[in-house]
Structure of Glycogen synthase:
Amino acid sequence: MRIGIVSTPFIRVPPSGYGGTELFCYELAEGLTTRGHDVTLFATGDSAVSCRRRALYASARWPPLPEDEVNHLAWAFSEAAREDRLDVLHVNSPFAVAFTPFVRVPVVHTLHHARCDESSRIYARHPDIAYVAISERQRSLEIALPRSCVIHHGVTSARYPPSLTDEGYLAHIGRYAEEKGTHIALDIARAAGMPIRLGGRAHPKDHAYYLQEVAPRLRESGASDLGEVDHDRKVALLRAARALLCPLQWEEPFGLIAVEAMLCGTPVLGFRRGSFPEIVDEGVTGFLA
């Protein structure tokens, strides 16, 4: 089957650090290619994949700007229509849905983000697309989509060798943001009398939060910020952690880092929000409050 996958212009595939959507696109492209499908990935020019790669931008465009996304999507759809070689097109951005009338193949859209009214209005105008939610909780909060299903994210387990030991610290990895509960993770570690290691960064819109809530807590004993970590450093950090702290303050649509931690043999500690009741096996792979 000839399958097109449209990633984002913001982060390379696979991501060198943060990038949930781009990691998903990498795993999907590699998995389908391994199964013998003819895959074309529309991504950034610095992406490294086994399949055919097409790019408008030579490198990732950061920070995210809507004009870069629209240019990337318009180019990807125009190329897909011009080449007319695909059997199906898989998109990963709400804006991409608006371009679907310009191609003559079935389109699948994976929803990666929490519901917002602007995206829902786009979905409502395109009911013939196959929509894939990444958790039951995400789908329940979205408008009714007539052609929808739920498929949890997956990763290649061989890239996450499990560990039966730990070095006695807690971990918190990903985007430093209020909805991710980064400051709460630091408070939990202090209350438990355990060291904590952070791996990630704050996005531009979260910079004020970082300065006000996270930076002062990092000055306390036992807390350290390793900065953004690549795949190998992330896996090493997870494998040696006593637990991964995910004190979510929002309805997280999925949370790939939780799956990555569980594959490494590291339990997830979090709240019963978002996808976590679906993906955490209570008392086996983690504990939810």
Remarks:
- The chain has a mean pLDDT of 97.
- Residues 161-288 form a domain with the Rossmann fold fold (CATH 3.40.50.2000).
- The first strand starts at residue 2 and ends at 6.
